[in-house]
Structures are given as structure tokens and as C-alpha cells.
Amino acid sequence: MMSATATQAACHRPASSATSRRQRGVKVQACLRDGAERLAKGAAAAAAAGLLLTGSTLAASERMTFDELQSKSYLEMKGSGRAGMCPMVGPDGEVGIRGMPTGTYKMDRFCMEPTAFNVKVPGDNEYRKSTLVTRLTYMLSDMTGTVTVGNNGTMALTHGMDDDGFDYAAVTVKAAGSPGQGGEVPFMFSVKNLDIKGPSDNMAGSLVVPSYRGATFMDTIGRGGATGWDWQKGLPAADQDKLREQNDKALEPTPGSAAFAVTKSDPLTGEVQGVFVTRQLSSDDMGGKPEDVCEVEVQGVWYGQLQV
């Protein structure tokens, strides 16, 4: 078992270009798990202060409940900035989940809306703010899964939340110091195989991040994971290891960590809302550019409806 100091040192050590994607995933998994408890505490603190809403396109007072959103027409929603936002629990809600009966529920309309993207580039010790490059299409919505509410204020999402809905989104941000082209950091924002549990204001656990590229994607030379050329034509004798990374496309998923906190719930409607923080790896171009991999921290708000 690595000590906290040793684990942090390993997290901050830049990865070798010869290190396999799977090996990097194992190392980062240890790093992300080591920070899961700190993430959860940070999420709970941010929930109490309402800090995670500061990066949203609309103020908290301008957010709408689920019923209010459903009552709007297309023209009323068009250009308002609300289409890519999660609903909020109504004014009758209460803090936490104290009034929610214990038991196993189906969570429907589970929504996650990022409000901030922070990036830790290779060789850096801190996550720093980044600038969004892609459009506002990063929200995960209409996901379903199973949730267990305990009698001691605990909550568990241990069966994933990817039974249905949009559970991943391709996002690109620009971060200072990133080794990628133009400082861009592409990554797949995902909560596949979400497995978290703990006190409702301090849940922590893991998730799985699929490859940013699909098996049928081909690079500029026509190489792909399941189609295209296997090797670059006219393979030079020098730089075999580097060329092998570009030729052998890797599509394995990588691990990530997540921390969730419930801020408000309504036992009458079954609605719950809160804040989240996730950490994961950025894209390595199907294993071809391991030196460009950064760690990405996503902060935001979430919403769901519990049904018996």
C-alpha cells in the first residue's frame, strides 16, 4: 500500500511515452482514489456555499423546476440558455435527504451539468481553470439507474446510471501549458459504471471513461482500431517504439473517480439535486500520444427523480 506522500508523488510524475495506456490507467486510478475523500468533502463544502453554480450560464435564481421547464414551448426555450441546464428542486424541498423514506429506488431523468472544467497538465501539481472550446453540449441527461437510500442518511448508486439516456459527451477545453496542439485538451466526459456510496453529503467512488475515439475512427494515414491500415506505409527503421504507439490503436477504457453530495430533496415528488466533482484522464489519441494526457476535473450540479 502506497503512503499518501508516495501516491501524490506518483500522481505528479509525468508519464513516460513508452508506458502503456493500461499501466497509466492503473497508476491514475490509485491517484484518483486517493483523492476521492477530499473530492467528496470539497463537493459538500461547495454545496453548502453554492459555489458550483458560479460557473453556470445562468444564476441560481434564474433556474427552473422540472415542471416549469416542461411548460415552456420551443420558442420560449430557444436562445434562453436553459436547454442545456439541469432542473432544480422546487421551493418546497428540504436540505439533504432526511425526509426521503429508506429503500431502493429507480432514479429517472438523472442529469449532470458541468459548471467548471479544471485541468492538471503533465508535470504540474495543481488543477487549473480551463477555457471551453466546444459548444454548450456537455450536459449528461435522461439517465436512469438504481439508488438505495439508507436509514442513517446514507445513499448508494452502485449499479451504474447508464441503463438509458445520454451518459457521455465529447468535450474539448483549452488549458495553459497543455502539450496538446494549441493547448487543447479533448476528453470524454462520462459516468459509465458509476459506483458511489456514503453519507448523502459525502458520497465517493469510481466510474469508467470510454475511449475518446471509436474503433472505426481512422487517423490521417488511414489507421484505425477495427478498420483501415494496420501499419504506416514505408515504416522507417528508427523510432520503432514511437511508431508502434501510433500504429497499435488502444481503445481500452480508463478509470476515474467521482464525489457527489445531495443539497436538496422533495419527498413528495421524489426529486433530489446536488453537486458533483469527477476526475478522469483526457484523450491519448487511441494510445498514440501518451505524453499529451492530462488529468481533468469536472465540477457541476446534478438532478434526478426517485421512483419506487
Automatic annotation (TrEMBL):
BP GO annotations: photosystem II assembly; photosystem II stabilization
GO cellular component, one term: photosystem II oxygen evolving complex
Family: Belongs to the PsbO family.
Keywords: Membrane, Photosynthesis, Photosystem II, Thylakoid
MF-aspect GO terms: oxygen evolving activity
Signal sequence segment: none
Upper taxonomic lineage: Eukaryota, Viridiplantae, Chlorophyta, core chlorophytes, Trebouxiophyceae
Subcellular location: Membrane
Classification via InterPro entries: OMP/PagP_B-barrel (IPR011250), PsbO (IPR002628)
Designated name of the protein: Oxygen-evolving enhancer chloroplastic
Disordered as annotated region, ranges: 1-25
SUPFAM superfamilies referenced in this protein's UniProt entry, alphabetically: OMPA-like (SSF56925)
